[in-house]
Amino acid sequence: MEAHEKGYFTEENSVEVVTGRNANAKSERLKEVMSVITLKLHEAVKQIEPTQEEWMEAILFLTRTGGMCNEWRQEFILLSDVLGVSMLVDAINNRKPSGASESTVLGPFHVADAPELPMGANICLDSKGEDMVISGRILDIEGNPIKNAVIDVWQANDEGFYDVQQKGLQPDFNLRGIFRTGGDGSYWFRAVKPKYYPIPDDGPVGQLLAQLGRHPYRPAHLHYIISADGFETLTTHIFDPDDPYIHSDAVFGVKESLLAKFRLTEDQARARQLEFSGKFWEVNHDFVLAYKRQV
Amino acid sequence: MEAHEKGYFTEENSVEVVTGRNANAKSERLKEVMSVITLKLHEAVKQIEPTQEEWMEAILFLTRTGGMCNEWRQEFILLSDVLGVSMLVDAINNRKPSGASESTVLGPFHVADAPELPMGANICLDSKGEDMVISGRILDIEGNPIKNAVIDVWQANDEGFYDVQQKGLQPDFNLRGIFRTGGDGSYWFRAVKPKYYPIPDDGPVGQLLAQLGRHPYRPAHLHYIISADGFETLTTHIFDPDDPYIHSDAVFGVKESLLAKFRLTEDQARARQLEFSGKFWEVNHDFVLAYKRQV
Fold first, then answer.
1. What's the pLDDT tens digit per position in A120-157?
2. pLDDT tens for residues A226-274?
């Protein structure tokens, strides 16, 4: 018997010995996943050649990351975000046909039960920030309007905070709403211009970013989940292309096709019509949904 | 500008975009380590193509692993152990010259302040288990005896528990001792035959092992740390080759060269001489230390 047949571990056969133990795994998928994880983990260790002290540093980093997690804070998701893993999983699971709008990360601030509002409603409930009107159409890939599309939208305020981060300071459901398209597939609502904000950076992930010389900011954006019968649900953002962090989103959520145009308008007549008091921002962005894949 | 120059993330350029952010890392080593980790992590995700649900399962597994850690329990080290990472790091850091004894993992049960004992002492303080006498020599790679070598030895009892796991049930420092060689480099002491035991398997790592169809057992062994001036310190085990788990150590610690011979002896005269009451186990194992590397 050779050493590896006896199950004895060496630097050379490490992957085969470890994955060889999984012959009786309860699921083929788990066996496959653990094969890849073991291979890539051992490849990384062999390339890095960590000292015992560096290995212990990694153990303690993961331990601190776990210690930071609670009902309100998911530090492992943050870690996945800043390493580009969340965006990669999103990309793999949302390969769209040509012409369909691209997805991006859901993020941690979606709430399930936002109110359904009439088209044109102002989702800003506390009048703070610079007025903004957003409009566009929900289309299929042939350019036909989609009727009864449900648009779930949410955003941070002009200080970079979501309502759920400032309970008591912002009204409940501030800057959230659900809209439903009519026969022409169009939507519009009023809001305030969002601002860039940092991901929570007072934990191990924030410390890692600092060590890597990286900032924790996400460029200003609005979140959308758009769903309609017969179509793939689209979870995405639109971004302000003039944001200082547009080329360095801490969680890699920006895609070229998600850049909207934020135009500053001084049209007094339209401002009055929209019940705005002066200058306001105007955004127009269409979304194209892909047909549901046959399962 | 191409998309990747703007820092926009795609499935294809994911690694370059993420590692490209580390240009201003505070340490070249951290930058290098994170390059490898990012590359291997993205390679793994691209090969596995996890669903969003599987990704969340992984996040929650790491979160539970973190939640299991406390002053007495290090679940991330256990995870590193059962994935062969701890042994791999040990192997990388302890490449020995030909002829020197091989190392294996330290394990979590070493204590710093075990008593120094005279050669021949019985480290079993509660008379439980099958008597055993262990002897051998500490040698350099030319076969010369090493004088003043310090041998720190510890082991589980015949039920598979270390003293620190059974405070109050076992005497303090049961089955631990430190011995120092004389001019002939030889050592001997009395103990009891150790037994296989499970790694702590009541947490997420134990659940993973169960899902993988793996048992949590380590084959019976004695731990040694052997140090001497001018030599590399050797952290290792000797194993009972007849143990039922010798080919499937849950943490991959077994190496061919670490198999000792455990012989059952019925020599009544020697038993009396050793103050044993009947049959006893006899183990003879030499250790060869490597000269300290020049730094």
1. 999 999 999 999 999 999 999 999 999 999 999 999 99
2. 999 999 999 999 999 999 999 999 999 999 999 999 999 999 999 999 9
Q: Sign (positive/negative) of CA torsion A218, A219, A225, A231? A: negative
User: Under 8 Å CB-to-CB from B257, ≥6 apart: which residues?
Assistant: B101, B102
In this structure, how many other beta carbons lie within 10 angstroms of the beta carbon of residue A145?
16
- Calculate the average pLDDT of chain A: 95
- Pick the residue from chain B with its C-alpha nearest to A252: B9
Q: Which of residues 32-91 of A touch B (CB under 8 A)?
A: 32-34, 36-52, 54-55, 59, 62-63, 65-67, 69, 74, 76-77, 80, 83-91
- Which chain A residue has its CA at the smallest distance from B25's CA? A212
CB spacing of A76 vs B63 below 8 angstroms:
yes
In whole angstroms, what is the distance from residue B128 CA to residue B73 CA?
Answer: 27
Contact A247 B11 (CB under 8 A): no
pLDDT tens, residue by residue, B199-246: 999 999 999 999 999 999 999 999 999 999 999 999 999 999 999 999
At A96 the pLDDT is 86
For the record, the structure tokens of B190 come out as: 């009395």
pLDDT at B5 exceeding the cut of 80:
no
CA distance linking residue B160 with residue B217, whole number of Å: 10
pLDDT of residue B27: 97
Integer Cα distance of B270 and B268 in angstroms? 5
Cβ A107 vs Cβ A225: under 8 Å? no
Look up the CATH architecture of domain A99-289: Sandwich (2.60)
A254 Cβ contact partners less than 8 Å away, ≥ 6 residues apart: A104, A219, A239, A246, A247, B7, B8, B9
pLDDT band at A92 (very low <50, low <70, confident <90, very high): very high
Query: What does the alpha-carbon distance between residue A252 and residue A61 come to, in Å, rounded to a whole number?
Result: 22
> pLDDT digit string (tens) for A31-63?
999 999 999 999 999 999 999 999 999 999 999
Q: Is A97 on the interface with B (CB under 8 A)?
A: no
Closest residue to A21, CB basis, from B24, B50, B248: B248
Range B96-289: architecture per CATH: Sandwich (2.60)
HEC secondary structure over A65-129: HHHHCECCECHHHHHHHHCCHHHHHHHHHCCCCCCCCCCCCCCCCCCCCCCECCCCCECCCCCCC
A204-211 helix and A52-68 helix, angle to the nearest 10 degrees? 130
Bridge-based pairing state of the strands B221-227 and B150-155 = antiparallel
Predicted confidence (pLDDT) per residue in A102-114, tens digit: 999 998 899 989 9
**What ranges do the domains of chain B cover?**
14-80, 96-289
pLDDT in tens, B124-140: 999 999 999 999 999 99
Task: State the count of interchain CB pairs (< 8 A) between A and B.
Answer: 228
Does the complex come out with an ipTM higher than 0.90?
Answer: yes
Name chain B contacts of A52, Cβ cutoff 8 Å.
89-90, 93
Asked whether the beta carbons of residue B7 and residue A249 sit closer than 8 angstroms, the reply is: yes
B3 close to A (CB below 8 A)? yes
